[in-house]
Amino acid sequence: MDIDLITNILYAMIRTGTPLLIVALGELVCEKSGVLNLGQEGMMLMGAVVGFIVTLLSGSLLLGFILAMVAGVLMSLIFGLITMELSANQVATGLALTIFGTGLSAFIGSEFVGKPIEGLDPVFIPVLTDLPIIGRMLFGQDLIVYLSFILFGAVYWFINYSRPGLVLKAVGENPHAANAIGLPVFKTRYLAIIFGGAMAGLAGGYLSLAYTPLWAENMSAGRGWIALALVVFASWKAERVLLGAWLFGLASILHLVFQGLGFAVSPNLLAILPYLATVVVLVILSSNQTRSRLVAPMSLGNPFHARG
Amino acid sequence: MIKLEPRGERSATMAYLSPVLAALLTMLTGLLLFTLLNVDPVEALITILYVPISDTHGIAELCVKTAPILLCAIGLSVVFKAKIWNIGAEGQLLMGGLFGSYIALQLIEAEGFWVLPIVLIAGILGGMFWSGIAAILKVRFHTNEILTTIMMNYIALNILLWAVHGPLKDPEGFNFPESALFGDSALLPVLIEGTRVHFGMALALFAVVAVWVLMSRSFYGFQIKVMGMDAGAARLSGFKEKRLTYFALLLSGGLAGLAGVGEVTGPIGQLIPQISPGYGYAAIIVAFLGRLHPLGILLASLLMALLYMGGEMAQISLGLPLALTGLFQGMLLFYLLACDVLISFRIRLKPRKVKTSTPLTPLASETRG
C-alpha cells in the first residue's frame, strides 16, 4: 500500500464520517436531555432534499445549507410537539418521523432526481494541506468538514464545561429533580430536540450538496440509524462520537481499500460492512448490562409531564 | 386556551375512534395538499381511494397487495404486544423471499405437490433465521432490537442484491439482475380463476385467525401480553421471559418470511431486486393503526394496500409522484400518534378552576408520573 493510497483513504474516511459526526452530535445533545429521537433518518432526508432544491433553484450553497437546517428543525418540532405536548411514545413518534420524512422527501424531490448541481469545493489551507498523509485528511477538506470539527469542539465544551450543559445533563438524568429545583425541563428538551433537528438537516444537506451533489430517494441510506448506534457506541461521550463517526466512515469506504489492494469482492457485499459493524459494536457494548445502564442518561426515552 | 386533562383511565371508545380520526385527518390534509398542487382535490381523492377498487379486477389486486402486508403486520402485532420493537419485518420478508427462491431454483425441474410446501417452509425459515439473530442478540447480549433489526434490513437488502446480481442470476437472462422463472410446481395456485389472487391471501387470513386464537385463547398469548404490560410482573409469575422473546420474534419473522416467499412464488414468479415496496415498514403502521388487534389489522392492511394502489393510480392518471403513498403512510402514523393522546386525556377549552383549600406547593402539584 503506497502513501498516496493511505492519504486518499484517510481523506475519504473523514469526508464519509462527517455527515455521521454531525447528525450524531445532534442526537447526542438530544439524548443527553433524555429525549430519544429515532427520526434522524427522516430529518436528514428532508435536509438533503430541501438543501438540494434550494441550491438548484437559487444557485446559493449557503442558502441551501441554511434551509436544510431549517427543514431539519421543522421536522424536529413536529417530533417535539407530539412527544412533549401530547406525551406520545418517543420511539413510535421517532419512527413515524422517519417514515414521514422518507415519504415527504421523495415526494417533493421527485422532479429533481438526477439533476446536477455544482457541489461544495474543498478549501485547501496553505502549507498544511501539503503535509504528508494527514495534510489532505485534516486540511484539504470542504468548509462543512471544518465546521464539523468546530461543532465537535463546541458540543464537547458545552456538555463538559458549560453551565447550560450541566442543566442539559440534569434534565436528562432526572427531569423531576431538575424541575423541582426550578430548571426549565420543557425548554431544555425543546432546545435539545431543535439542535438535533438542525444538525440532522445540516448532515442531510452535506450529503446532497457536497458528498454526492445530487438528490436521490432515500440517499441517506441508513446513516441516521447508524448515528443512533454511534451515540450508544460512544457511551454518550462527545469525543467517542468523533472517533466512532470516523471509524464508521472508514468502514463505509472499505471497498476503496479493497480495490486499492487488488481484491475483487462484490460491491453489494462490501456495502454490508457499515451495517454489520454497527451490529457488532452494539453487541459488544451492550453485553455488559450494568455498564450500559450507568452510561445512558437515566430518563432517556421517558416522557415528562410537568403541566398537569 | 386548550388544555389536556387526564381522564384517569384509558378510554376504550377513543382507542377505536383514534385510527378513524387519523384516517380522516390524513384525507383532509390530502385534500389541502392537492389543492396546493393545483390538482382537483375531489378527483384526486376518488382516484386514490375509489378508482383502484372500482371493478372486480381492482378488488382482486387489492387482495394480492393485502396478503404480504397482512402477514407482516399480524406477526408484528405479537411482538409489539410483548413490547419488543421489531422494525425488521422488511428484512425478514426479503430473507424469506431469498431463501424460498433459492430452494425454488434448486427444484426448478421438480414436479409434484411437495415442491411448493418445501419452498414455503424455506421462506418461513429464512424469515425466522433473520429475526432469530435479532432475538439471540437481544436475549443473550441485551442489544437494542430496534437498531439491530433496522441494520439487518439494510444487510438483507444488500444480500438480496448480491444474490440476484451473482449466484442466483438467470444464466440465460441477458445479464439482467433477475433469477430464472420458477417451475410451475413452486408457484402458489391462483384462488379465483381469471385473477391474480393467489393462495397467499388464504394463508394470510389463516395466520390472522391463528394469531387471534393464540393471543386471546392461549396461555402463551396471555404470557406475551403480561410481559408487554409489566415485565416485572411476568418475571414474578415465573413466565420465561427469554423463551417468550424468542417465540414472539421467531413467529413474527416467520410470518414476514412467508410474506416474502409468497411474493416471489405468487405474483412475481421469480427473484427480482424489488420484492417489496416497503411492505415491512408499512406493516408497522398497519399494526399500530389496527390497534394490534387481528380484525383491526385486517382492515388497516386493506387500507394500506389501497394506498399503494392509489399511489400508482395517482401517478398514472394525475401525474403525481409515486412517493405519495409513503407521504400518506407517514401522515397517517403521525395523526394516529397525535389522536392517541385522546385515549388518556380529554381536551378542555378552559382550564378548570381548582378549588383546594390546602394548596400543595406549585411544583409538586404540577409534577406527575
TrEMBL record, chain A:
Keywords: Cell membrane, Membrane, Sugar transport, Transmembrane, Transmembrane helix, Transport. One of its GO terms (molecular function) is transmembrane transporter activity. The chain crosses the membrane at residues 12-30, 42-59, 91-113, 133-159, 190-209, 215-234, 241-258, 264-285. Pfam families: BPD_transp_2. The keyword Transmembrane helix applies. It comes from the Bacteria. It is a multi-pass membrane protein. GO terms for cellular component: plasma membrane. It is found in: Cell inner membrane. This is Simple sugar transport system permease protein. It comes from Amphritea atlantica.
TrEMBL record, chain B:
GO terms for molecular function: transmembrane transporter activity. Keywords: Cell membrane, Membrane, Sugar transport, Transmembrane, Transmembrane helix, Transport. It is found in: Cell inner membrane. One of its GO terms (cellular component) is plasma membrane. Pfam families: BPD_transp_2 (PF02653). The chain crosses the membrane at residues 20-39, 59-80, 92-108, 114-137, 146-164, 197-215, 244-262, 322-345. Its main location: membrane. It is a multi-pass membrane protein. PANTHER family: ABC TRANSPORTER, PERMEASE PROTEIN, GUANOSINE ABC TRANSPORTER PERMEASE PROTEIN NUPP. This is Simple sugar transport system permease protein. The lineage of its organism: Bacteria, Pseudomonadati, Pseudomonadota, Gammaproteobacteria, Oceanospirillales.
